[in-house]
Amino acid sequence: MRLTEAEMRKMALKARFIRERMNENETGKQRENLKNSRERLALWQKKAAARGSETSFHNRLKMDGLTWEEALRLAGEVETGNEEEKDGEGEWPGELPPYMETVNRMLSGLSVLNPEEWKRESETFWQSHQKSRKDKVPDGNEDMAENSDRDDQDIGREHPSVAAVQAQTGITVLYPLVRTLENQLKKSWGPDEEAFFSEKAVADCSRLLLDAFRKTCSATLTQCFKIFVLRRESMKYLRQMNDTQQIHCLHLFADHLLAGGWKEVFVEFPVLARLLAISAHHWITNMTALAAHYRQNLPQLEKTLNEGQPLGAIQRISGNLGDTHDRGKSVVVLTCESGRQLVYKPRNLLIDSCYTSLLDQLGKRGFPYTLKVPKTVNAGDHGWAQFVKHTSLVSRGEAKAYYQRMGGWLALVYAMGGCDFHDENVIACGAHPVLIDLETVISHGVTIEPQSDQGMQGASVLNLGFLPIWLQESAESWVDRSSLNSSIRESVPVFNGRRELVFDHRQAFLEGFTKAYEFLMKEGSAAICQWAEETVRGKKVPVRFVMRKTWTYAQLQACLASPRCLEDGFLYSAEAERLAAPYLLHSTVAEMTKNWPAFQAECRHLEAGDVPIFGGYADEKGLYDPHDCLVADYFTHTALQRAEQHMKGLNREDLERQTAYIQASLHIRNETTHTAGTAVLRADEKPVKQGGASTDAPDTVHTMAKSNIAAQAVQATPADQADQADQAVFKEASMNICRELRRQMERKKRDSSHSLTYQYNLRNQIIEIAPMRDTLYDGRLGVALLMAACFRATGETEIHTEALKLMNPFCEELKQSLGAVPTDRLPMGTAHGLGGMLLTLVRVGEYLEEPIFFETAERMVRGIPHEAIRKCTTWNWFEGLTGLAHGLLVAAAFLPDGTADELMDNCVERILGAKNQWWDPSTVKKVGQTAAREIPVLRMGMGARSGILQVLIRYNEKRNRPEVEEIIGQGIRAEAALLEELSTKKEAIPLSLCSGIAGMGLMWASLEKCGREEMKHTGRNNMNRIAAILEQYQPLQTDDLCCGNSGVAEWWLTAEGSGKTCRQLLRRRHTHLWNPSLFKGMAGIGYTLLRASEEKSIHSLFF
Q1: Pairwise CA distance, residues 127 & 1095, whole Å
Q2: Is residue 275 a contact partner of residue 605, using CB atoms and an 8 Å limit?
Q3: Which InterPro entries match (predicted)?
Q4: What is the percent of the chain where pLDDT is above 70?
Q5: What gap in Å lies between CA 145 and CA 341, rounded to an integer?
Q6: What is the rounded distance in angstroms from the CA atom of residue 10 to the CA atom of residue 255?
Q7: Which of 41, 558, 994, 1028 is the most exposed place for a label (fewest CB within 10 A)?
């Protein structure tokens, strides 16, 4: 089974990447009538220019000297012609690329055995692999063997699952390709090298390649299987296959591929064939180098890593211990005949030995903790390290010592400007956390983007990999990859089979960080200067620079492995060009030209199937990939200068700030964005100290510095005379919050280290610590709205100026989008999406009396494509179409007549059409769901059905549509029944606005304000019931608008115009970080207090 010459030429032509298409000599003779050029060019523009900006994309083309017409030509899908054509049209000109011969060699190997014989061999191969996996699991990691690759382990059982058969099919069809290449590997070894590998070690090498092939092929083979079934059966059969039918089809599919189907796959997906061939070539080269390096370095390895004793031949090899870089290279672990395990690293390990000397020097100066790193042997372009085994704690008391040392590590890595110590780079070895990959213990100062809030996050303890940090795995799943709290067992200490997590030992961890930090404040600068002079400076010490988070590359590689990308080299390259945006946005032409080689290197690495890797030398400013200097003066500071500056910059204020980040990070790891807002009945009241709330809660906001005399005056005033006095105090308190926010914003401008705050991911119920964004819920727009309202109440010009400063960057970004609102990257709702942006624009325009904001809102409404509404599948007020409808309802009063009507109608049509998805509280889509936790369903409030009905009621006051009125009628009956059910239960009732009866109450309030006359009575009756329920409960423990007392106060203001519960908002609360959020922090409390004092001029956010 071989490809013909014509087939190979057509495949090679179709598999070309964009950079190859740019070369006229390689483009070859093509037809003039290129297909789909404009559509494909538009796709390239969308990927490379982030928001699809023509200006940015033109700049991208200029970087490679391309005109628009040339880009249009090379974007075209070449018509490859028919078999009969002999003129060479649509074929690769000249000599074929080398990888095509490897593709043919893999196909030829399939004919050695028939399909049944290959099946038997592959089953034997995988059964031995499963046995070897269990044999090789280190002590303390038994559960990892049980929990990983479950589908693979199910292979061979009497009644395997469909997933197991799918895995087995992948092994069966790939094994023949790998077996052919294994024979080629043996030929590349000399007799001396081959003697060092046992039979099992050779098989292990083959498994590494098989695993790489499975990762690349998985999505494509899944699609090919579906097409295979459809050729024989109907679409209905494919969708409704039972397990028996699916397993039968999988066996037939395997037979098909082994009997010649692989050739069809390679012809249809030439990029897949190319990547497999490149992986095979790299694998042979790297395994050959491993054999040679082991033989050459053996004496030194025995002396340094095996106490002078013989190591013997290599018995086993395990890999996949990290990403592949630099032509398929990755870390592997060797088990030698002596039983000793060694870690082979295909990079220079000079920084590891240098860092060992720094630890020795710090120890001599009195560093409070003994920190361990593995022993190493550096051999230039590669090195060897001691294998660090995960071992359990001897006693639970050792956990304290472990976390003190972990705190010491955090302080040291932070002080030296290091990064990237996530779960894969730390091993819990008894009472010692061992850092096993030291290439990022110091890092260069970056120039890819100006110093900003994002840069500040990178310069804090939050971005080092130690502390809990959420990373997005998919649209519905986030994972924690921190070394302190990962699900990977090796990075967490274990006692008696139980993981000892940092949350149970946070005091020890903070103690370790503080002691180490204080020591480094006194001794660190002298130690690092001595270390630099004696060990690093002038020694060409290589260090890694993390250009982007590895997770970013992993997500991109998953996209690149899609069948669509693997069938066309242009589409593969266009997807990879998503990395271009940071080079193009907010950069001058000179900066783009200077840094463009780094982007080109990223693309080259991805096109070779690798994760891009960059670095430099510790005392130089050049940016390197593994082979070339890409940009000679890329960094602002050398890694050594940056480490010295970090160490000199340690001070008491920074210690307090970093400690606050640590405490906040540990707390929010197990918190969700929405809380039920359950309070205590007044009969069960216990005395609460003034301001008495948990200091750990990020959503308990410290309100403001206020006059205690004013607060006491309110408390001393009789209830029936309190309104006027209350209003004066509420206004003053709100203004104090506004002043505090202004001070914080000004402080942030002077020192960006104060810019980080809580950010709330409502979809996935995750709280992060990050810079503020342009959102209403927890970003700059919410703060701007409060300041604009304060200006309306006071007329202070300084507040007016500050509000404009907050709004102008957002408006400018909208203006630069050339009328096309980036709906592909923004939610629709009020919290973080288009609805909240519209609401902010018109309310700020009204409060500041600035028409420009109304004009911007009109441009925004006209720029929202109707297609985006049709594609939206989220409905709630916070994140979904209901929020956009709410924003349009508010904006309509300030826009030319009819501007928002069509969009509003489309939103409502979509909401009504999806009634089954949001109607029943028991089936409502969860606000968020992650792999790490189970999130409660929101049964009521603005986050659930109540919020949707509230907007529909207000909409229908304007549009009077019978079908909407019918849904409203059904809804109020359902809400009334739910309220009745809650009233009769003995359990506590949720009170909050987002998910409690305060939010439900806003629906009843809208019915009273906007419903038909016969419904207004129902609205008022149920509002009275809610008022009676609220009177029975004590104030909530949090004061925010979304889940706390401000939300309850908002209901009282809407329902009765009363400032009830607003006094509760005057108490002072403490959090680790400042929290300016409108819905979860200070701005929301300030806005509620201002509403209580200026109700006629300051509008509700919900009407």
Answers
A1: 74
A2: no
A3: 6hp_glycosidase-like_sf, LANC-like, Lant_dehyd, Lanti_2_LanM
A4: 83
A5: 19
A6: 26
A7: 1028
- Average pLDDT on 112-132 reads 73
> CA nearest 222: which of 146, 163, 154?
163
| Element containing residue 411 per DSSP (H, E) | helix 398-415
Partners of 616 in the β-ladder? 543
For residue 691, is it left (φ>0), alpha (ψ between -120 and 50) or beta? left
Per-residue pLDDT band for 79 (boundaries 50, 70, 90) equals low
Q: Are the C-beta atoms of 901 and 892 separated by less than 8 Å?
A: yes
Region class of 186: left (phi > 0), else alpha (psi between -120 and 50), else beta: alpha
Which one has a higher pLDDT value, 25 or 267? 267
Average pLDDT value for residue range 1027-1033: 87
* pTM greater than 0.70 (yes/no): yes
Instruction: Give the C-alpha separation, 729 to 710, whole Å.
Output: 6
Cα(532)–Cα(762) distance, integer angstroms: 47
State which of 551-555, 736-740, 836-840 shows the largest mean pLDDT: 836-840
Instruction: Kindly state the tokens that stand for 988.
Output: 């506590």
- The crossing angle, in degrees rounded to 10, of helices 834-848 and 797-816 is 140
Name the nearest CA neighbour of 598 among 610, 578, 619, 613: 613
Cα–Cα distance for residue pair 368/554, rounded to 1 Å: 38
**Dihedrals phi, psi of 1100, to nearest 5 degrees:** -70, 150
Average pLDDT over residues 984-993: 81
* Helix residue ranges, H only, 532-669: 550-560, 563-566, 569-576, 581-584, 589-607, 639-648, 652-668
Task: Decide if 186 contacts 288 (C-beta within 8 A).
Answer: no
Query: Structural domains in the chain?
Result: 5-97+554-607 (no CATH), 99-279 (no CATH), 390-541+635-667 (1.10.1070), 755-937 (1.50.10.10)
Angle at 784 between CA 782 and CA 788, to 5 degrees: 120
Q: What is the pLDDT of residue 688?
A: 36
Strand 494-495 to strand 498-499: parallel, antiparallel, or no bridges (unpaired)? antiparallel
At residue 827, φ and ψ (nearest 5 deg) are -70, 170
**Lookup: tokens for 269:** 């997906």
pLDDT at residue number 768: 87
Rounded distance, CA 577 to CA 648, Å? Answer: 39
114 residue type, one letter: N
Residue 1005 φ then ψ, to 5°: -65, -40
Q: Is 519 in a helix, a strand, or coil?
A: helix
Q: How many Å apart are CA 1080 and CA 1061, to the nearest integer?
A: 17
Please name which of 319, 229, 234, 217 lies closest in space to residue 269, comparing C-alpha atoms.
Answer: 217
Over residues 61-78, the pLDDT tens digits come to 999 999 998 898 888 876
Structure tokens at 36: 């789909």
Q: At what angle do helices 881-892 and 834-848 cross, to 10 degrees?
A: 20
Q: What does DSSP assign to residue 11?
A: H
Q: How deeply is 175 buried, as exposed, middle or buried, from its count of CB atoms within 10 A (0-12, 13-18, 19+)? A: buried
Radius of gyration of the chain (CA): 32
- CA 912 vs CA 819, 908, 952, 1001: distances in Å: 29, 6, 10, 22
Degrees, nearest 5: CA angle 280-285-291: 125
Q: How many CB atoms lie within 10 A of CB 1011?
A: 22
More confident residue, 937 or 961: 961
Count the residues in the chain: 1103
List of residues 6+ apart from 13 with CB closer than 8 A? 28, 78, 80, 90, 91, 92
Nearest one of 1075, 1032, 1030 to 1049, comparing CA atoms: 1030
pLDDT of residue 677: 61
State pLDDT tens for residues 526-548: 999 999 999 999 999 999 998 88
Asked if residue 523 has pLDDT above 70, the reply is: yes
Rounded to whole angstroms, the Cα distance separating 641 from 616 reads: 13
- The distance from CA 175 to its chain's CA centroid, rounded to whole angstroms, is 34
Q: Mean pLDDT in the chain?
A: 84
